[in-house]
Amino acid sequence: MEHLYKTYPPGLGHLRIPVDTRRATESGLTLYSPCRPRTKWLHRGVRTATRVLGARALPGPATRWEPPLPSEQWAWLCAFWRRWIGPFDDLAVYERTQVHRAGLGLLLLRDGRATAFVRMKRGDAEPLRKEYRVLESVAAFQPIGFRAPRPKLIGAVGDWSYLVTSTVAGPGHRSPANPPIRLLGREITRALSQVDLGSQGNRGWEPMHGDLTPWNLREIGDGSLSLIDWEDAAFGPPGADAVLYEATASTLESRAPRWTAPSETVDYWRERISSRSTGEGRDRVLVDGLVRRLGDMEGRPVGDANPVRGQRPRALVFAYACDPSSGSEPGAGWAIVAELAKRADCTVLVGPEHEEALGSWQGDRGGLRFETVPEPGWSGLAKRHRITWFLLYLWWLRGAERRARELMAETKFDVVLHATYSVYWLPTPAVRLGLPVIWGPVGGAVRTPLRLWPALGWRGGFDEVLDFVAVRAASCLPATRRTWRRVAVALVQNRSTLERLPRALRARSLEVNHVEFVGIDPLDAERGPTPKSEDPFVLFAGAIESRKGIALAIRAMSHVETEVRLVIAGAGGDRRRLAKLAARIGVGHRVEFVGRLPRDELQRVMRRASVGVMPMLRDEGGMVLGEAMRAGLPLVVLGHGGPLRVADSGLDARLVRVVAPNGVKRTARDIGEAVETFLAHPPERGPSSLDGKSGGRALDEALARALALRV
What would the mean pLDDT of 157-176 be, rounded to a whole number? Predict the structure, then answer.
């Protein structure tokens, strides 16, 4: 191939950038991985200029590049690659400058786009064969926190060996600002556990990448991490990869290291780094800087964050809503935190709204500590509408992340749980803390069935469309996609949300609704069977919103022959429309709106009611449904979204009737007939039909998975 190239970057010139087309030039520039702040900005400027001016933006004259093989062998090798890898018409060249790793890197291009990467080495082929085995093992492991090249082909021609892999870094790649380096180190160790890496070294040494540095760990445009150059994979002291990365990053950024390392690891890297040095130029400056930073890091073991065997793990929890005296999201947050506190020492970041209610629990439960993260002065106004409250929550998360980092400087945590207001389309700052993350229970994907949209009304339909568009847009954010890749375990509220997650995350997910953490109130077991009410009535409890499906419950009353009332306990803006609907279909005298009830009063009403109706059109679970099941109330539930998951987890199938969603008229009729059946043949009611242990079982599994990744 006769092509012209320019050397890059100025002063080093170890890259040959093709200049035949603008696209090829842009692809060739991806071979350069600047890490110092100044060179990163300069390289970014060159890339921008290249997009506008093409190869003319690169300094210096264009020259030809001579392959390392005789022309006949090179032509044969290129033809062989095209046959087994695919066609390519150009390449970019990286001439390795390190003495101990001399060779070439070739980026194969087709129409200016990268198709494969080739590493060529003269002499001993064993390092490339080992790297091929390593990449196979990493691909089979499917790591959570990073991507790695996939091996395609290995071979030799003359005295040169080559390894062909896929490409993983795109045009927008850069060194990551604050990667979860210790978590990555643990994943690398597990990914390489089945590979023959040669001598195992000292007792207790673990598999490592061997060259985990900012120029080999790249953040791609979509926010994911790419880890390349696995040639030095070997056994090393525990945490060796993390120590090398921190020493290198602190040297390049001219700052002090953030943490310390054991003497064994420091001595290991001092010896290896010194043996690689040429003794002059940039290499000497970097080596001297690394040795100084390693000396600064020498101290207590880097693994001192690990608890002693048998000691309870330490968990940091994001729980904006957490209140033992409330229902809904705050009640769910409290239930999850209380369940986790049985298994770990918890430090919980909460919103100021719940500070007073949580105060009495601060000293009553061992291993449970609450940290209030303040809100801005405009929070009162923000809480008047769902959209502004959402913006307030995002603001709160930023403060919670800052407080989390302060706490991590004081206490060594093992795992992070983002417990409340978890939706699959929003990112969580927990993934930026460098610890294994349990995310959820996560919801946000349930949608009203199309055949039931007429029950929403025009305002409800508008809200449904607006919500759908906003959710799909937010789910495309790079930060959201980064969250999907980096969480260790996702707890997913229902099947609808599980199906919306990417396949890789579904494999790391457990389906459990936040209602399943509520457990059984100890008083329930003492109350015994619920006596038959002398004033039978049907109960709906919850917010009076179109998505709650109250219109279906009202329509169902026209199919209930027994003369009973429908009591609607709740508040919301849809009351006027629903009252008009009841009057129009002739059941207005049987529908009673009683407003929002205090939690204790609502529980008493649930125990007196004859039947509960929960026809939620769009709901992730519904704490009120869990409360009704705890009260032993016979329930008619729409088989859709979170309520279907909760109903299926009940202990007594006789107390739940699940109605399949169909058209409005048919669904209302089926609900009415199910209510009439319960009224005519009331089942025996026990203290609770809610499984009080299913949430704990799921949390046990999630903790086991997450703690396996801790450093």
Answer: 82
Q: How far apart are CA 366 and CA 293, in angstroms?
A: 40
User: β-pairing, 611-614 with 591-593?
Assistant: unpaired
Tell me the CA distances in angstroms from 482 to 75, 214, 220, 435, 559, one per residue in order. Answer: 42, 19, 10, 14, 50
Answer yes or no: is pLDDT of 288 > 80.
Answer: yes
CB atoms < 10 A from the CB of 49, how many? 13
Position with higher pLDDT, 440 vs 283: 440
3-state DSSP helix/strand/coil % of the chain, to nearest 5: 45, 20, 40
Q: Which residue has the higher pLDDT, 240 or 179?
A: 240
Residue with tokens 């038959």: 532
- Domain range holding 36? 1-122
Cα separation, 302 vs 323, in Å, equals: 37
Residue in the structure block whose two tokens are 């793990």:
313
| Confidence at 377, pLDDT banded by 50, 70, 90 | confident
Retrieve residue 689's tokens: 């039909």
Residues 590 and 497 in one domain: no
Residue-wise pLDDT for 572-591, tens only, equals 888 999 999 999 999 989 99
**Count of domains in the chain?**
3
Residue partners of 11: CB distance under 8 A and separation at least 6: none
Distance CA 436, CA 54 (A): 43
pTM for the predicted model, two decimal places: 0.66
CB of 497 within 8 A of CB of 424? Answer: yes
Q: DSSP string covering 217-244, please?
A: EEE-TTS-EEE---TT-EEESTTHHHHH
Condensed to tens digits (0 to 9), the pLDDT of residues 167-189 reads 876 666 778 877 878 778 888 99
Among all chains, which residue has been given the structure tokens 């007429």?
454
DSSP β-bridge partners for residue 541 = 569
Phi/psi of residue 531, nearest 5 degrees: -70, 155
Is the residue at 659 inside a domain?
A: yes
Asked if residue 284 has pLDDT above 80, the reply is no
Q: Give the confidence band of 200 by pLDDT, cuts at 50, 70, 90.
A: confident
User: For position 472, which CATH number holds?
Assistant: 3.40.50.11720
